[in-house]
Design goal:
This protein is of the alpha+beta class. 23% of the residues lie in helices and 11% in strands.
Length: 148
């Protein structure tokens, strides 16, 4: 699948060959050489990249919630193997069965404007200036429906 990168020039540099993507696990570095182990196919191919100027490490993100008990995680349908949407949340913010528990930034994408809107929504819910649909509507909601 495609991965998200926030940059106005990243894709241009990839097309020009100025940035070359390599997927795998960095196992070592010496001088201007990098040692990468790629396990995308069935063999564990080892590659040496030479004369490297810069390295951008995209280490991934695995959300974990050790502060939530197993019952709450079950209610939220927590899937630790899903790094994009590990929880089933209404508007990627809350679950109707867990009142007062809110999440900001748990959605598919890295855009700060969405996080800002989520934070404003949570602030509105806490202050009472924003109200939610009924519990029944929350549980049967179509994610594409607007409610603000």
């Amino acid at each position: 699948p495609a991965y998200v990168a926030i940059s106005d020039s990243y894709s241009k540099y990839v097309k020009q060959g100025r940035i070359i993507e390599h997927r795998g696990r960095l196992t070592g570095a010496a001088n201007k050489d990098l040692f990468i182990e790629c396990s995308s196919d069935e063999s564990n191919k080892k590659t040496i990249l030479s004369d490297i100027d810069d390295v951008i490490l995209c280490t991934g993100f695995q959300p974990k919630f050790p502060f939530l008990d197993t019952s709450t995680l079950a209610t939220l349908h927590y899937d630790p193997s899903d790094s994009w949407l590990p929880l089933i949340l209404y508007r990627d913010i809350l679950h109707p069965s867990e009142p007062g528990l809110y999440f900001v930034g748990m959605y598919r994408g890295p855009y700060f404007s969405v996080m800002e809107l989520q934070a404003k929504m949570v602030a509105g819910l806490i202050s009472g200036s924003v109200s939610l649909p009924s519990q029944e509507d929350l549980l049967t909601a179509d994610p594409s429906d607007s409610w603000l």
